[in-house]
């Protein structure tokens, strides 16, 4: 009988040990090597902004064409031609000596030169473009110039596209021209180009490019940052 009792005790111990191996819901979850724990989740934002090409009517009109895209996305019915007619212009005459520009307008004041491209033209910078935006969205234009790249992506996350000044060939500018506007010295890169920043992910930024008419054109994120920085971190959006 002692032997039977001993065998029963051993059996009970074995059963207890077996049951003690069941999962405990209070224990931390164990992750396999394939678990996504610790990995950075991919993130992509892409706004559906209408694409509008600047050509053939506005060979030099990338800024107002970009503004037309932004305004139409925001529900404002306006076209690039109307904007090109209403943008403030600096009509200071172009004076050239050989291949050198001696004097011309200031893009911080208004569009410099001929926006259609029939004659020589250059560009316009954020101030006058915001002034024009304000005619259609009073009090909502925001100057993001000299802000961080994260400020731009913050607006994208709030479903607001951003107009940015980069270069037409998507390379940092390698040549600058200088001229005088009165006593002020203007320094500018003629490959300046304005586009609409419509999205980003871990690797790329996405732009609506009025020059080639490409919607959601991918640009390497680091390349974009380098070019945008080299062009003075100019950008505008709206609240």
Report on this model:
It is a single chain. The model is unreliable at 1-39 (pLDDT under 50). The protein has helices spanning 2-19, 62-73, 80-86, 126-136, 149-157, 221-230; strands spanning 45-46, 89-90, 95-97, 100-103, 111-112, 141-143, 162-167, 177-181, 184-188, 192-200, 204-209, 214-220, 235-238. Strands 1, 6, 7, 10, 11, 12 and 13 form a 7-stranded antiparallel sheet that branches. A two-stranded parallel ribbon has the order 2-5. A two-stranded antiparallel ribbon has the order 3-4. The protein is 28% helix and 24% strand. Helix 2 (62-73) crosses helix 3 (80-86). The protein has one domain (54-238): Alpha-Beta Complex (Cathepsin B, Chain A).
Helix and strand arrangement:
Layout: H1 2-19, E1 45-46, H2 62-73, H3 80-86, E2 89-90, E3 95-97, E4 100-103, E5 111-112, H4 126-136, E6 141-143, H5 149-157, E7 162-167, E8 177-181, E9 184-188, E10 192-200, E11 204-209, E12 214-220, H6 221-230, E13 235-238
Parallel strand pairs: 2-5
Antiparallel strand pairs: 1-10, 3-4, 6-13, 7-10, 7-13, 8-9, 10-11, 11-12
Helix pairs in contact: 2-3
CATH topology: Cathepsin B, Chain A
Shape: globular
Measured by DSSP, the beta-strand proportion falls in 15-25%
Mean pLDDT: 88
> In total, how many domains does the architecture comprise?
1
Radius of gyration computed on alpha carbons = 30 Å
What top-tier CATH class fits best? Alpha Beta
Largest sheet: 7 strands, antiparallel
Number-wise, the strands total: 13
Supply the CATH superfamily name. Cysteine proteinases
CATH architectural designation: Alpha-Beta Complex
What is the N-to-C order of secondary-structure elements (H for helix, E for strand)? HEHHEEEEHEHEEEEEEHE
Structural class: alpha+beta
Low confidence ranges: 1-39
Instruction: Identify the quaternary structure here.
Output: single chain
Q: What portion of residues is helical? A: 25-40%
């Amino acid at each position: 009988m002692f032997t039977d009792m001993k065998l029963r005790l051993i059996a009970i111990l074995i059963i207890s040990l077996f049951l003690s191996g069941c999962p405990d819901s209070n224990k931390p979850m164990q992750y396999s090597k394939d678990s996504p724990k610790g990995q950075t989740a991919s993130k992509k934002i892409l706004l559906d902004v209408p694409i509008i090409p600047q050509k053939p009517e506005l060979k030099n009109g990338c800024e107002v064409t970009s503004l037309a895209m932004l305004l139409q996305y925001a529900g404002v019915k306006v076209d690039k031609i109307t904007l090109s007619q209403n943008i403030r212009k600096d009509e200071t005459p172009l004076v050239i000596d050989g291949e050198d520009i001696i004097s011309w307008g200031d893009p911080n004041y208004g569009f410099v030169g001929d926006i259609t491209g029939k004659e020589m033209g250059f560009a316009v910078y954020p101030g006058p473009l915001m002034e024009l935006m304000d005619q259609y969205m009073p009090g909502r234009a925001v100057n993001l110039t000299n802000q961080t790249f994260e400020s731009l992506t913050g607006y994208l996350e709030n479903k607001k596209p951003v107009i940015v000044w980069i270069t037409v060939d998507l390379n940092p500018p390698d040549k600058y021209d200088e001229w005088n506007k009165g006593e002020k010295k203007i320094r500018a890169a003629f490959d300046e180009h304005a586009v609409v920043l419509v999205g980003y992910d871990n690797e790329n930024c996405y732009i609506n490019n009025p020059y080639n008419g490409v919607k959601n054109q991918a640009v390497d994120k680091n390349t974009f940052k380098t070019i945008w920085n080299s062009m003075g971190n100019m950008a505008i959006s709206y609240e």
